[in-house]
Amino acid sequence: MANVETSTDASRVIYLDSSDATQNLSGIATAGKSKKTTDVQFQLEEPIVVPAHHTILVSLHSCAIPYSFYNFQTGRNTKLTFGFQDTDNTNVSGSSTLTLEEGNYNIQDLLDRITTAVVAHDQSVHSDSATHFECSFNPSTLKCEWIYRRQDRRLVFRFRSNQDTNFKEEIGFAENCFVQPEVDGGYDFFMDATSTHYRLGYFDGATYTLFVNQLHSDGTSPLSDPDQFFSVVDVNFHIRSLYLRSNITQHSVLDSSIGSRFSNILARIPINSASGGELVISPSDGAVHTLMLKVREITFINIRLTDKQNKLIDLNGLDFTVALQFDFIETPQVQVPVSIRDKVEAKKIHNFLKSTGKEAELKAFLEDEQNKKFINV
User: What does the alpha-carbon distance between residue 79 and residue 162 come to, in Å, rounded to a whole number?
Assistant: First the structure.
């Protein structure tokens, strides 16, 4: 009798709500803060069992995710470390770190906070009330511009010191533009002034290199970037897309961020709503990516919602829902070509066993030959 599930277009759909999770796997993010709702496990009271000689396919049927996460999140992109030194790299002052509160910021918010922090530290280190630092956003180029006017002193943005948590890409220092080729540890950005010039440059851990060297007489406004070292500002750099990940999809999706190896990505969730809204994927959206699973039984399902760096998204206490669709198909078989030499040798053995009356050996031989013709996909 034909298997009803595999001989029709019927599917199984499982609806998962993070509030119903059997276990929250995220742990405590920081002291006094509740667990994130985006790393959860569901134990299935009725396991999904794959019938013999069949394969299971999975796809994202639908999901609804509240857009309650921020574009600046602790542990991802809230720090900027900076400090001062003489232009001959002596007399280095202690570094200071600007740490943003989690939230949604636009570029002017960022520049205002950077200015406040840098000017305050500058005045403290040099014991005066003058303002020598200025930065601005150019709406024509969508880039930031920078200047530091204190003569014979250098202001350094120490991107190398907190690469995993700084927000350099958000303010225009994406690796695609800011100094090529890339080096281990990345680059620091510096701005300084001599008695005749305002300058911008970068530091690779060993050498300070200029890329802007402008005479005072050419202006004292923040300096533009004629050689395209700065990238376009992108305050949403880390949340352009979300990624739904699962323990059941370990052998179906390749990810370029880990050397194009297999990853646990189930689906990419585009940001198609404004902050405060809801990100929704529904069956009516059209094309669906179906994954073939190499499992015989599913007893639990882990679901993670992350950014492109596989860092958990924080929905700030809200829950999300996903629906997974499972389809069963008969395992396809691919016939393996048999060479002429193998055919001749097999025929010799077959004739020998048949002529000697070794029926059991002949039966085992024929079964083995049959198995060699097919492989499971």
Answer: 8
The neighbour count for residue 290, using CB atoms within 10 Å, is 11
Pairwise CA distance, residues 293 & 252, whole Å? 7
Question: In degrees to the nearest 10, what's the CA dihedral of 343, 347, 350, 351?
Answer: 180
Which residue range is the domain that position 190 belongs to? Answer: 79-225
Peptide bond into 181 cis (omega under 30): yes
What are residue 200's DSSP bridge partners? Answer: 191, 212
At a CB cut-off of 8 Å and minimum separation 6, what does 42 contact? 16, 20, 21, 22, 300, 301, 302, 303
Can you tell me the distance from the alpha carbon of 377 to that of 364, in angstroms, rounded to the nearest whole number? 24
Burial class (CB in 10 A: 0-12, 13-18, 19+), 123: middle
Q: How far apart are CA 305 and CA 320, in angstroms?
A: 10
As for how many domains the chain has, the answer is: 3
Query: What are the pLDDT digits (tens) for 119-168?
Result: 999 999 988 888 999 999 999 999 999 999 999 899 999 999 888 899 99
Does 26 lie in the same domain as 103?
no
Question: CA torsion 21→23→26→28, rounded to 10°?
Answer: 110
217, two tokens: 């007489």
Same domain as 210, residue 83: yes
